[in-house]
Fold this sequence. Notes:
This protein is α+β, with helices and mostly antiparallel strands. The protein folds into 4 domains: 5-113, Alpha-Beta Plaits; 129-257, Sulfite Reductase Hemoprotein, domain 1; 271-346, Sulfite Reductase Hemoprotein, domain 2; 350-475, Sulfite Reductase Hemoprotein, domain 1, CATH 3.30.413. It has 10 helices and 22 strands. β20 and β21 (414-421) form a beta hairpin. α1 runs antiparallel to α2 (104-113). The longest helix is centred in the C-terminal third of the chain and has 19 residues, at 457-475. The N and C termini lie far apart (56 Å). Bound molecules: iron/sulfur cluster. Residues 355-356, 361, 363-364, 392-394, 396-398 line the site of iron/sulfur cluster (SF4). Iron/sulfur cluster binds at residues 355-356, 361, 363-364, 392-394, 396-398.
Amino acid sequence: MKGNLMVAANGQTVNEPTCFSQEPAEGRVDASPLPPTVRGACPSLSTPMQTGDGLLVRLRPATPGLTVAQYRALAEAAETHGNGLIEITARGNLQLRGLTSQTMEGLAADIDRAGMSVQSEIAIETPPLSGLDPSEIGGARTLAKRLQKAIDGLVPKPRLAAKLAIIIDGGGQLTLDGLTADIRLKAARPGERADPLWTLAIAGTETTATPIATLPDDLAIADVVMLLKRLSRLGPRARGRDLDVAELRGQFSEARLNARAEAGPSISPLGIFSLATGGYALGVRPSFGQIHARDLLRLLAVAEESGVSEIRTGPEHSMLLLGLAADKLEHVRAAATSCGFQTRGDDPANHIVPCSGAGACASAHYATKQAAADCAIIAPELLDGSFKLHLSGCPKGCAHPSPAALAIVGVPNGHAIVLDGPASAQPAVNIGKEHLKSALALLGELVRNDKVAGESARQCLKRLGRDAIATALRQG
Ligand code: SF4
């Protein structure tokens, strides 16, 4: 069943399970929010999460996208029931902030009234343009629907980790290669005229996940279901990394391990994409992943008058406006820029990934979004696109769970500078609270002065090495 909360025939609100592993419970919206430090929690409508600016709710529409009218209803609800701040997460989920236990029921009712159903069960993620992308190799959305049906039919229901993620990626203009998943299927075409096959891999991004087999549609579905049953047997917290790779590989013949799709070059979701159905999609992103409802409403007005038929969220905090004619693209892009959206793939600020940060998250030790804005001015040398600069308010690393070449992580007495690791990794050096701007400037200066011809910022930092960078920052 879809939807975190629905209105029953008798008019009562009914909580639905936030996670595949939970049983539905009837009654009013649970007013006991999750504390901010609960790992593996789903801050859904029925279980909002306590943050620094009130309750946070995360929504994943059960449909590929929403209409302009539905987004308008969502933005109005965010202002009415919360503090108006709306975020798009790195995985394309929507987050509303600043809610209270008193306003949750009104929010749920408004969402229901707008005809939005939100995904509450196992997350099967597909690229935002799946089904509309002329270069998609395999029909990811179709396969996802078939897999969902197969999972829905399982008796007993598998008990799975709340954050378990399945990615089905048909290839194409926009992929989900950079997102981690417990189980992933990626389409590859073994020959020019051959039907697509799916490479099944576990635990990681497209680059780091372990491939298990390459399979046609039916077997891909059957084997993902098999993996889910295994995970269920391992316990409700089991993740893809807990599966026995050697044992799994032993079950597949050598022939089924060939033809792995290569991870393609990463394409920014910001910009213009042609659609198989005619027309275009314009990819935009709220600056540093967050927008106020009133600014979103301004953009929606322009989008509506320009003929946008649907809006989908995508990776890297993006939002894709679908159905635009060629002569409307620049008009809508200019409006998006004036409303506070990033609209170009070559904007240096695209290479900074801040989490919500201080003022929005109770766990944050610094204002990450302000630091991101500062960095774009102070240290543009770091932002050549060769890596993502991760600004994390604490070691949890919500905004960039995978390792980053450089992460600046908030800790109680200042900032931890992490090189080539996730936010929780051992830092190369710690700096005091007041030294963030000077550290950014120094890192930019290091790259500016030490970069040799043809070298990227990332290569330069790597060549300089952890010890030299740590020493420079200590002395600075
Ligand atoms: S990483 Fe950022 S958003 Fe996540 S818990 Fe820490 S401070 Fe909050």
